[in-house]
Amino acid sequence: MTNKTTHALELHDVTKRHGAGDTAVTALDRVSLSIPHGTFTAVMGPSGSGKSTLLHCAAGLDRPDSGSVVLDGYELTDADETALTRLRRERMGFVFQSFNLVPTLTVAQNVALPLEFAGRRVDEREVRGLLSRLGLGDRLDHRPAELSGGQQQRVAIARAMLSRPAVVFADEPTGALDTQAARDVLHILREAVDASGQTIVMVTHDPVAGAYADAVVFFSDGRIVDSMTRPDPASVAARMARLSAPVRPSGHAPPSAVRPSGHVPSSAVRQSGQAPSSSVRTSGHAPSAPAPQNGRARHGGDGR
Ligand SMILES: Nc1ncnc2c1ncn2[C@@H]1O[C@H](COP(=O)(O)OP(=O)(O)OP(=O)(O)O)[C@@H](O)[C@H]1O
Ligand SMILES: [Mg+2]
């Protein structure tokens, strides 16, 4: 079970540099972020702004140079490789743009694989039930190559969620899908938060995808520069356009979204020690309280 007394995920002053010397890149620059249980957070920003690095550090796939990452109450930055591997298997799920299914295994075998790696018992009825809910009940014995992209991604989501992880990380999960398949996947992710209290952190470039989340965190140059609760596609697109626009010389101060200080606006996502902030679903908080309703209200009419 998750520890309801903590956030699902907390980053405190996380810095990560790639490379060394003149070519070194600061991919994350003192990033702090708190994400409550049972919420859906989108991470957005220009290419190269550090979104994937954030996910990798948050999931213990990469080690920050400094700062701390606490997942479901466990400090990752202190953990050795064995402990990290166990935490990843037991408390995290991953969904990637490229699905990453094992081509020689069936759909059902792919979904069960992480639990088998972890030496845990696989309840085949649960696998079947989950795949049926994702519209794949008649595809259990198919191989990935026999499925559409959207179907493959739904298998990957089932695989990520079977163990009921504390956090599912998704890096551009709809990036390789057509519009309808993307909507189906987003609807499934939204539903997992609303119906099961799943916590999801999703990187996306798509404002429509971002608007499925409870909150959007905007990155630029390795820093959180803004955040938005109850996002809608038009507002997210407008914010993204400002982030991606070339900096124009002007007489007055830049808007907060591109302020080079890089510090999160005070009301945004920092302040991990306090009452959760207003951005990343920062109420007190009951996992399925206001956020899910927002999601339903906005998206209930589409998808599957
Ligand atoms: N292994 C690496 N070695 C060197 N530099 C890296 C490495 N991984 C990432 N970087 C650099 O760190 C910065 C952040 O990269 P990251 O992949 O996190 O960006 P991103 O926001 O996910 O971009 P995209 O939207 O294109 O996926 C970029 O400048 C990138 O070139
Ligand atoms: Mg990336």
Automatic annotation (TrEMBL):
CDD domains (alphabetical): ABC_MJ0796_LolCDE_FtsE (cd03255)
SMART domains reported in the protein's UniProt record: AAA
GO MF, one example: ATP binding
Residues annotated as domain ABC transporter: 9-246
Entry keyword Transport: yes
Keyword vocabulary terms for this entry: ATP-binding, Nucleotide-binding, Transport
Span of the signal peptide: none
Pfam families linked to this entry: ABC_tran (PF00005)
Biased composition (Polar residues): 268-282
Record region (Disordered): 246-304
Transmembrane segments: none
Residue ranges that the Swiss-Prot or TrEMBL entry lists as coiled coil: none
Database matches in PANTHER family: ABC TRANSPORTER RELATED, IMPORT ATP-BINDING PROTEIN
The protein, known as: ABC transport system ATP-binding protein
